[in-house]
Amino acid sequence: MLNKKSSLLVVLMLALVVIVTACGGSAPEKNNKQQGQQEKEQQSEKQEKKQKNNEGGLSVQGSSTVLPIAQKAAEDYMQKNPEASISVRGGGSGNGVAALIDNAVDIANTSRFITDEEFKQADNNGVYPVPHRIAMDGIAVIINPENGIENLTLEELKQIYTGEVENWKELGGPDAEIVIVSRDSSSGTFEVFGEIALDGSRVAQTALMQSSNGTVKSTVSNTKGAIGYIGLGYLTDDVKAVKVNGVMPTNQTVASGEFPISRPLFMFTDGWPEGVTNKFINFILSPEGQKIVKEQGYVPLY
Known about the structure:
alpha/beta; nine-stranded mixed sheet; two-stranded parallel sheet; 11 strands; D-Maltodextrin-Binding Protein, domain 2
């Protein structure tokens, strides 16, 4: 028979087992409830967005490179379809993708493909990004018009943007400090330029980081010794485009594959598009929409 001390010990052990079992069972139950609530909220957001979309409302956000195409296409589409209401904003490819993942927009404009990490984030949020290629683009390297440099190689661009070469005279140009102008890290143009021209190397810390193609162009135009890069659609006489590896950035050289710094432009949707989202993307892919692509200075798909 058990004495009083042994009996007390058994009771305490049984009580501990009950407590541990209860604690172990409550956490998963709580997590399941939280997950279920999160899924309900996501589904509610999707239903609300789908309802607005079916009624003609469409929100578009992302790449400043794609922005001129999207704005002009939206303007023309709404003229033909007065019931449609299309909102178009820039902010960079990364911000556009983030908004799509958060169920905040119908279309994310990007000048690069979605990353693996973004796909994971989207999957965790119940979003399934589907790419729609709408155009091709070349990333033009631009300098101040007073600079006499006509051609740069990819290796020279890497030397400039990593800070290895700091004066134009080292490249056969004037005795002037090189002012590096770059897009910021939320930009798809920044990522593609970094992959192709810099071979993955980091941009020098002295670089002036800009939020859009327009601000890059403006900075280079107003700064002697500056160098930057922009989408083809932003080229004007305010800046001077240089050859890269002996090839000038034009619609023809991008279409042929001769120009070395080129990329496709995308619109991403959550799943296969429906309603006005589907109609708007089909409009951009139509002959009329591809004409808009060309008029905005980019390379149509056909």
